[in-house]
């Protein structure tokens, strides 16, 4: 049953196929109608996620975007305001969902180079009670920080934000699309961070290799609301246990091996650092996202490099912005493939016009 993959895909960890173990579990999963609350595999996944993240309850949702949107709808009302980083996924990459569908005003604030909000700016952004103003209600956080080279943010930051939020009656939601990458990189228990936020959503379908899905966790009352909002958004799924079966393996076993992806990312970063025409600081690579720049002197444009790698070498990487490119390591990337990518980039930059 193992699939043969002719090309090697570094564009994202979303490209990960389910493992053979996942496919077997999906084929034999116990199923029921989950909108009736009768799918035992979905229930097991929700319970396990809640346990691992130390929350009362969980909800299986279709994507990270849906998890974040449901969380915002469940924490805030129309006319409320959500404080978030100006480079947060929820602000930049989710089609403006909280505003479009929730009537929630985003209040973007600058972040530091590791994706953290400035605590004084957060305090200043919290509004008092005045009929002119939207009501400050929610702080949206992210870990690891996708817009900041996958920085793994420490528990103390979340505790500090939590203290501010509590003092002003605000809720906090953590977009933990790559949360286990963040905890693995720091060697901290997931609960060290999740205890400092009201809700968390994690992606099963990125580095954890499940084909589809995210889990949202929080208090019983919050998940009760969230279940209604999932239905509202058309996210109530029926025999979703076929997907949750892969999610269970994602949580149980794939969360335990993410250091391997961080090691291959480090291998890649150090290899790239030896290539003339590339700028990268390997120390800035904390998890599985490797961002690097083509220097101004490089005779190849980013899009030409991407094309040459794809056509001549069967290697896929992603463009990001300007001269910045991104390569992501994951379960289906092994050290020899990292070596292949480094040498292919070296070849393209050394022989820019041959083809
Ligand atoms: C991928 C991602 C999401 C959204 O996940 P989808 O499943 O693609 O909707 C949210 N936040 C961050 C930081 C992500 O990287």
Question: How would you describe this protein?
Answer:
With 355 residues, this protein is of the alpha/beta class. The chain folds into 2 domains: 238 residues, Type I PLP-dependent aspartate aminotransferase-like (Major domain) (Aspartate Aminotransferase, domain 2); 94 residues, Aspartate Aminotransferase, domain 1 (Alpha-Beta Complex). Helices cover 40% and strands 17% of the residues. The protein has 14 helices and 13 strands. Helix 12 packs parallel to helix 14. The chain is globular and about 60 Å long. The protein starts with 7 loop residues before the first strand and ends in a 5-residue tail after the last helix. The site of pyridoxal-5'-phosphate has 11 residues, from helix 3. The site of pyridoxal-5'-phosphate (PLP) has 11 residues, from helix 3.
Summarize the amount of helix as a percent range: 40-55%
Separation of the first and last Cα atoms: 36 Å
Q: CATH superfamily of the largest domain, called what?
A: Type I PLP-dependent aspartate aminotransferase-like (Major domain)
Radius of gyration: 21 Å
SS class: alpha/beta
The number of domains = 2
Uncertain segments are none
Q: Quick one: biggest sheet?
A: 7 strands, mixed
Strand content: 15-25%
Q: What's the count of strands?
A: 13
Shape: globular
Count of DSSP helices? 14
Mean pLDDT: 96
Give the strand order of the largest sheet, numbering strands 1, 2, ... along the chain. Answer: 2-8-7-6-5-3-4
What is the CATH topology assignment of the largest domain? Answer: Aspartate Aminotransferase, domain 2
Q: Which architecture of the largest domain would the CATH scheme give at its second level?
A: 3-Layer(aba) Sandwich
Small molecules bound: pyridoxal-5'-phosphate
Please write the CATH class name of the largest domain: Alpha Beta
Order of helices and strands: EHHEHEHHEHEHEHHEEHHHEEHEEEH
């Amino acid at each position: 049953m193992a699939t043969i993959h002719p090309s090697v895909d570094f564009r994202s960890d979303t490209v990960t196929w389910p493992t053979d173990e996942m496919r077997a579990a999906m084929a034999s999963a116990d199923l029921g109608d989950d909108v009736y609350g009768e799918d035992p595999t979905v229930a097991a996944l929700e319970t396990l996620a809640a346990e691992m993240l130390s929350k009362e309850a969980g909800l299986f949702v279709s994507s990270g975007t849906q998890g974040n949107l449901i969380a915002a709808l469940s924490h805030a009302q129309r006319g409320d305001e959500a404080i978030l980083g100006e480079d947060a996924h929820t602000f930049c990459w989710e089609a403006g969902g909280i505003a479009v569908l929730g009537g929630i005003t985003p209040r973007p604030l600058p972040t530091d180079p590791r994706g953290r909000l400035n605590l004084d700016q957060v305090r200043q952004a919290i509004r008092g009670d005045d009929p002119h103003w939207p009501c400050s209600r929610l702080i949206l956080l992210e870990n690891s920080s996708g817009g900041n080279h996958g920085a793994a943010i420490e528990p103390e930051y979340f505790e500090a934000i939590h203290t501010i939020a509590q003092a002003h009656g605000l809720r906090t939601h953590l977009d933990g699309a790559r949360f286990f990458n963040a905890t693995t990189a720091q060697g901290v228990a997931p609960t060290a961070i999740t205890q400092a936020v009201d809700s968390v959503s994690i992606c099963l379908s990125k580095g954890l290799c499940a084909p589809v899905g995210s889990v949202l966790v929080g208090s019983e009352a919050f998940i009760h609301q969230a279940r209604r909002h999932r239905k509202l958004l058309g996210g109530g799924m029926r025999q979703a246990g076929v997907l949750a079966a892969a999610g269970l393996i994602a949580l149980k076993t794939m969360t335990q091996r993410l250091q391997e992806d961080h090691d291959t990312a480090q291998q890649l970063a150090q290899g790239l650092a030896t290539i003339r025409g590339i700028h990268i600081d390997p120390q800035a690579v904390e998890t599985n996202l490797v961002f690097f720049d083509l220097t101004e002197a490089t005779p190849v444009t980013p899009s030409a490099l991407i094309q040459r790698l794809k056509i001549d070498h069967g290697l896929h990487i992603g463009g990001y912005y300007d001269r910045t490119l991104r390569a992501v390591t994951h379960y289906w990337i092994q050290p020899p493939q990292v070596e292949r990518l480094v040498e292919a980039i070296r070849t393209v930059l050394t022989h820019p016009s041959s083809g």
